[in-house]
Design brief:
The chain is α/β, with parallel strands linked by helices and about 500 residues long. The protein folds into 3 domains: about 60 residues; about 250 residues, Type I PLP-dependent aspartate aminotransferase-like (Major domain) (Aspartate Aminotransferase, domain 2, 3-Layer(aba) Sandwich); about 120 residues, Aspartate Aminotransferase, domain 1 (Alpha-Beta Complex), CATH 3.90.1150.170. About 45% of the residues lie in helices and about 10% in strands. It has a 7-stranded mixed β-sheet, with helices on both faces. Helix 7 links the parallel strand 2 and strand 3. The termini are far apart. The N terminus is likely disordered.
C-alpha cells in the first residue's frame, strides 16, 4: 500500500521539535553560564533592594506572550532586568530573614538536577535520586545530633515539614488510643502545645489539618523568650482535666524572631510523661549545633520524635530545600497508609526498590532537591560549613556588643544564635524614657516604635543594607539575621551607620 501524501517519514524530526541545535545549545549554555558567573562575582556591589516601583520590571520586559518565540539576546537582556529588579540575599549586608545565600556549588547542583528532571516519587521512578535523598536525610540527622540513622524526606521548606509532622503525630495518637481503649473519642478536641514565639507555620498547619488555630495552645515564655516548662506542664494538666486530648508539643530549636532555643531536654521529659509526640521546629536553628560553643543549647534534640530543618536557611543551599526527620519510620508511614492508585503501585520485592516517598509525605511529584545538598556537603565538608555557621554566630554576638556599647541603640533580646534584635533609641529620648511615669512611658514607647518602623523602611529601600522586624516584649524591634558567609565585621559596622543615618532623617 502506498503512503498517503500527508504521511510523514517516521525518522524525520517533528515540526514542533524543541531540541536545540548543537550551535544553539552551546550558545545558550555559554551565555547563561556567563550571566550566573557575573552575578556571583558582582552580588556584593549590587544595591540590596532595587531602585524601582511595583510594575517597573514587567513594564520593561513586557507582559505579552510571544506566539513565535523570541531571540536569545532579547531574553538574556530581560533576565538581566529581572536580576536588577530583585532583592539580593547574597549581599553581605542582607540581614532581613533567615535565608542563607546560595553557594555556586549548590546553584550548579540545582542546574544538574533540573536537567535530569527526575520525579523523585519512589526508587522506581528515580533510583539514583532516591538513594541520594535517603543518604542526605541520614547525613542531616547526624549533623544536628538527632540520629545517625534518621529517616525522613526533603520538602519545599519548614512549613510543609511541620505540617507533615503534625499529621503524623495526630494519626499516631489516634492509633494508640484505638489500640489501647478500642476507640477514639473524636468529640474531645485534640490539642497542640507551643510557645508564644512559635513560627506561624504551626497554627497555619493546625488550621489546614482541621484542628483549628484555637487548638494550638500557646504557652508563656521566660525572660529569654524560651518556652516556660512550668507553664507547659500546668497547661497540659488543666487541658486534660477539661476534657481535651493533647497529642503534640512543639519546641523551637531557634525561634524565627530572636533565635531562642527552647529547653529541649525538659520538654522531651514532659512529652514522655504525658505520652505525646515531641516535635522540634529547627527549620532555622538546628544547624547551629555545628558550632561547638552552642551545642549545649540543643541537648535533648536526640529525644524528639521528629525534627524539621531547612538547609536553605543555614546550610547555604539554594531554595527550596526543607527536611523532615523522624525516628520511627513505621510511625510516619502510618499517617499515609491508604489505597494507592494502580498506576503508582510498587510491585518490587526488594525493600529498597519498593521504597516510595509518598508513604511518608504529602507530595507525589517531587523534584530532585537532594543533589544540591549532597554536593554542598561533600564539596565543603562538615568542618568548613561548621566554621561558617560559627562565624555567623560570632558576628551576631559582635553586633550585640556594639549595640550595648552604643548610646543610641538598645538590645531587646539575648543573642543565642545568629539573630540580634535591637532598636534605635536617641540619647535624649532614652533619658526621658528612664525618668518617665507609666502614662508618659506608654507614649514614648509608641513614638519609639514609630521611629524604628520608619527607620526600617528607609533602610530597606535605601539599598545599602536590609533588616526586618520583630515584636520583642511588646516593642518594635529591628531584626538582623546573620546567615551569610560573605558578611564581615565591617558590614555590621556599616549597617549600624546606615540605621543611625536613616533614624536621624526627618520624618514625613
Amino acid at each position: 500500500m502506498s503512503q498517503t501524501s500527508n504521511t510523514r517519514d517516521p525518522t524525520a524530526a517533528r515540526r514542533s521539535d524543541l531540541d536545540l541545535s548543537e550551535a544553539d545549545l552551546t550558545e545558550l549554555s555559554l551565555e547563561i553560564n556567563k550571566l550566573v558567573l557575573d552575578y556571583f562575582r558582582g552580588v556584593r556591589n549590587r544595591p540590596l533592594f532595587p531602585y524601582i516601583s511595583a510594575g517597573d520590571t514587567i513594564a520593561h520586559v513586557g507582559a505579552d506572550l510571544s506566539a513565535a518565540g523570541e531571540p536569545l539576546a532579547k531574553l538574556l537582556g530581560d533576565c538581566h532586568s529581572i536580576l536588577d529588579g530583585s532583592r539580593h540575599n547574597g549581599h553581605p549586608r542582607f540581614f532581613g530573614y533567615v535565608a542563607s545565600p546560595s553557594t555556586a556549588v549548590g546553584a550548579y547542583g540545582d542546574l544538574i538536577a533540573s536537567a535530569l528532571n527526575a520525579n523523585v516519587t519512589s526508587w522506581r521512578s528515580g533510583p539514583a535520586a532516591t538513594e541520594i535523598e535517603r543518604t542526605v536525610v541520614r547525613w542531616l540527622g547526624s549533623l544536628i545530633g538527632f540520629s545517625d540513622n534518621a529517616h525522613g524526606l526533603l520538602t519545599s521548606g519548614g512549613s510543609l515539614a511541620n505540617t507533615t509532622a503534625l499529621l503524623i503525630a495526630q494519626r499516631n495518637k489516634a492509633s494508640r488510643e484505638i489500640s489501647i481503649k478500642g476507640l477514639w473519642n473524636q468529640d474531645k478536641p485534640m490539642t497542640i502545645y507551643a510557645s508564644e514565639q512559635v513560627h506561624m507555620s504551626i497554627p497555619k498547619a493546625a488550621d489546614m489539618l482541621g484542628f483549628g488555630r484555637e487548638q494550638v495552645r500557646t504557652v508563656a515564655c521566660d525572660a529569654r523568650l524560651r518556652l516556660d516548662v512550668r507553664s507547659l506542664r500546668e497547661r497540659l494538666e488543666q487541658d486534660r482535666r477539661n476534657g481535651l486530648q493533647p497529642f503534640c508539643v512543639v519546641a523551637s530549636a531557634g525561634t524565627v524572631n530572636s533565635g531562642a532555643v527552647d529547653p529541649l531536654a525538659d520538654v522531651a521529659e514532659i512529652a514522655r510523661e504525658f505520652g505525646i509526640w515531641f516535635h522540634v521546629d529547627g527549620a532555622y536553628g538546628a544547624p547551629g549545633t555545628l558550632d561547638a560553643r552552642k551545642r549545649h543549647l540543643f541537648a535533648g534534640i536526640e529525644r524528639a520524635d521528629s525534627v524539621s530543618l531547612d538547609p536553605h536557611k543555614w546550610l547555604y543551599v539554594p531554595l527550596d530545600a526543607g527536611c523532615l526527620l523522624f525516628r520511627d519510620e513505621a510511625a510516619a508511614r502510618l499517617a499515609f497508609t491508604a489505597g494507592d492508585a494502580d498506576y503508582i503501585k510498587v510491585l518490587e520485592e526488594n525493600p529498597d526498590e519498593s521504597f516510595a516517598f509518598w508513604d511518608y509525605g504529602m507530595e507525589l511529584s517531587r523534584r530532585f532537591r537532594a543533589l544540591k545538598i549532597w554536593l554542598t556537603l561533600r564539596y565543603y565538608g562538615v568542618e568548613r560549613l561548621a566554621a561558617s555557621i560559627s562565624d555567623d554566630n560570632s558576628l551576631a554576638q559582635y553586633l550585640a556588643e556594639r549595640i550595648e556599647q552604643s548610646e543610641d541603640f538598645e538590645l531587646l533580646a539575648p543573642v543565642e544564635l545568629s539573630i540580634c534584635c535591637f532598636r534605635y533609641v536617641p540619647t535624649q529620648q532614652g533619658a526621658k524614657l528612664a525618668a518617665s511615669g507609666v502614662e508618659a512611658r506608654g507614649q514614648l514607647e509608641s513614638e519609639l516604635d514609630a521611629l524604628n518602623q520608619r527607620t526600617m523602611l528607609t533602610v530597606q529601600r535605601g539599598g545599602e543594607a536590609y533588616v526586618s522586624n520583630a515584636t520583642i516584649h511588646g516593642k518594635f524591634a529591628l531584626r538582623a539575621c546573620i546567615t551569610n558567609f560573605r558578611t564581615t565585621r565591617e558590614d555590621i559596622d556599616k549597617m549600624l551607620e546606615i540605621i543611625s543615618r536613616a533614624a536621624r532623617e526627618p520624618g514625613e
